[in-house]
């Protein structure tokens, strides 16, 4: 197990493969194992860095609200500690939000950017949903969020044909520290950077799941329209965790983009 102290916390990470660096950033309520399939597939061509976001997995989970500048500081602290000057960055959902902030704050550290199943803004009308989820995490722990989250994250067809994968992700959700969920959800709830991301200069690929209710393709269209030269792709028969529901198609898009 690899751990590094950076930006005031302990960060758990794993490195596989050889070639140019690519950093993978997972969603809320998951950990670096969300990327198992993609990491194995990219390792022959890239040096793959995965890490547990603050509040998740085996990284520190301090109490209190987190901010995206903190989550970006964790990434930069990890890159500095590993002497990584530049990296491609692939982020899904919360990871895509971190990627957008990273591209704005530290453009020199980024080669190409992939933003999957994400958004640049949480609309005000969604605030009560986030308040409710935070309240559940506070009252019941993240086990209370499993069923509702799985319903948003996977299509019914996937849950019935791949109960093993759905169960694996259910365990990740339930095992997320309440403090980590609440900390990251507080950052997500306040997200509003649509008017800033036009300054991103990294070559960008935006991926959406056609059946994603949480971050529907319309949210990805906004990101792709704002970032100069961004390309957008929609994966059919995929909900929120598109890298797990359509791993071959997700790999084809990401690898093709990073190698082009």
Output the keywords:
globular; Rossmann fold; alpha/beta; 260 residues; eight-stranded mixed sheet; 11 helices
Walk me through what this model shows:
There is one protein chain. Strand 1 (2-6) and strand 2 form a beta hairpin. The model has no long low-confidence stretch (mean pLDDT 97). Helix content is 43%, strand content 18%. The chain has helices spanning 36-42, 68-81, 94-105, 127-140, 146-153, 156-161, 163-175, 178-189, 217-226, 242-245, 247-259, and strands at 2-6, 9-17, 21-25, 47-51, 87-92, 110-116, 204-209, 231-235. It has an 8-stranded mixed beta sheet, sandwiched between helices. The chain is built from 11 helices and 8 strands. By secondary structure, it is of the alpha/beta class. It has one domain: Alpha/Beta hydrolase fold, catalytic domain (Rossmann fold).
């Amino acid at each position: 197990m690899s751990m590094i102290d950076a930006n005031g916390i302990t960060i758990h990470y794993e490195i596989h493969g050889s070639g140019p660096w690519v950093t993978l950033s997972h969603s809320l309520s998951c950990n670096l194992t969300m990327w198992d399939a993609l990491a194995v597939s990219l390792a022959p061509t890239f040096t793959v860095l995965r890490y547990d976001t603050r509040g998740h997995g085996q990284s520190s989970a301090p109490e209190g609200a987190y901010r995206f500048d903190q989550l970006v500081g964790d990434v930069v602290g990890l890159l500095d500690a590993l002497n990584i000057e530049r990296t491609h960055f692939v982020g899904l959902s919360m990871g895509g939000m971190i990627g957008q902030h990273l591209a704005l704050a530290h453009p020199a550290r980024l080669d190409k950017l992939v933003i999957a199943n994400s958004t640049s803004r949480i609309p005000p009308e969604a605030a009560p949903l986030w308040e409710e989820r935070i309240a559940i995490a506070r009252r019941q722990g993240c086990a209370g969020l499993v069923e509702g989250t799985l319903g948003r994250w996977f299509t019914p067809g996937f849950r019935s044909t791949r109960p093993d994968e759905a169960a694996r992700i259910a365990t990740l959700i339930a095992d997320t520290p309440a403090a980590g969920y609440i900390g990251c959800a507080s950052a997500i709830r306040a997200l509003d950077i649509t008017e800033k991301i036009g300054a991103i200069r990294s070559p960008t690929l935006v991926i959406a799941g056609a059946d994603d209710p949480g971050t529907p393709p319309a949210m990805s269209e906004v990101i792709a329209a704002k970032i100069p030269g961004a390309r957008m792709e929609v994966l059919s028969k995929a909900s929120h965790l598109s890298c797990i529901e359509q791993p071959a198609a997700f790999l084809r898009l990401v690898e093709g983009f990073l190698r082009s």
